Amino acid sequence: MNRPLLFLDVDGPLNPYAAKPQKRPDGYTTLRVPWGRGIPMADRGLPVRRRPLRVWLNPEHGRSLLGLDYELCWATTWMDDANRWIAPVLGLPELPFVDFGDALFQERPDGVHWKTAPLVRYANGRPFAWVDDEQIDLDEAYVAAHHHAPGLLHHVNPRIGLRGDDFRTLADFARSLGTPRSGRFGPGTSRRGSRCSRRRPTRG
Prior knowledge:
Layout: E1 5-8, E2 29-33, E3 53-57, H1 60-66, E4 71-74, H2 81-90, H3 116-123, E5 128-132, H4 137-146, E6 151-155, H5 164-176, E7 190-191
Parallel strand pairs: 1-4, 1-5, 5-6, 6-7
Antiparallel strand pairs: 2-3
């Protein structure tokens, strides 16, 4: 049986961009990514900044992610650029990524996040967890209605990024999939690790 997918967002869970800008979080290192060809969100209709993009990353997150019983997959506006910039700092191998194509940043009239439908299509009936800082209840409802396998939508606070409790929640979900008829995460259901009342600005 294939392991469940773990869809990884970068900005928010791995890069706590909303933390106090004057204070780098403990355990994190600073990555400066120049804007230009092949850099996330450049040439995609967004303004290009003169200063390099500051990204905070915790190298220990790579080890923790690899210790989970998942197949890791980027689900971020960085797309394949995450393999160039993010993976080496975290000690991750090159990972598959979701190519959002024309859906990138395209707001939906029903309020569902623009990532949600592409992730459900990519999973293609396979159990998955999705770590992001932008899911809302509409996304849970969409996954429950359109994905006929267990799905965990785990919200991470972009001020603090992934913590120990988040990894424990992910590990518990993966373990639950090996327990038939457990009732905790049945087919067609979704569950988030924490709640959010409104969507934050998209970073990816």
